[in-house]
Amino acid sequence: MRLILLGPPGAGKGTQAKVLMAAHDIPQLSTGDMLRAAVKAETPVGLKAKDIMARGDLVPDAVVNQIVADRIDMADCARGFILDGFPRTVAQAEALDSLLAERGLALDAVVELQVDEEALAARVENRAAESGGEVRADDTVEALRHRLKVYREQTAPLIDHYRATGKLVSVDGMQAIDDVSAQIADILASEGSQAQVAG
Ligand code: AMP
To answer: To test the ligand 1 pocket, which listed residue (88, 139, 147) has its Cβ within 8 A of the most ligand atoms?
Structure first.
């Protein structure tokens, strides 16, 4: 199963990716996690990405496209994967389309988590308060507001890109975590049975 989780920062993509990973025994490919690991290890990619990420801007397409291309070719992705935080621009989506086509692979679904942006800002404020200030460099209200703006301008257009492929499914991400997971599971199960009927 090959899935994309789409939605603004804080929508719960990572949480749902972990549920799906356990249910389907396929890896979660989070470009954010991979980039944070690169920043921590001070690799050339990490050094390039560090300040961009702290501001809440997007790392250049060529950098993330290469990270994903390398990761998808690893053995644990043979049965599928869950993309969490990639693609984030139309250029990345087009790069992914070619990457998959070159390998004779197709996406099963693009799951959009729909959320209320004001509620997201409140969640991040709570997280900052609970942790006593020990948060990710980009996990502040200011950085979140910027990341939401970047999402609206650069990532939200992907909703139309994937709607046109017929692969887009939208879920209310403001529900309780378990309810969101259950709804995604139902959708994937019914898509799977439709695909079987279709042959
Ligand atoms: P995330 O953990 O997915 O919210 O990503 C954290 C940060 O990593 C983002 O705000 C970007 O700076 C960077 N990043 C993650 N994924 C991508 C991507 N697909 N394209 C560009 N930048 C990304």
So the answer is: 88
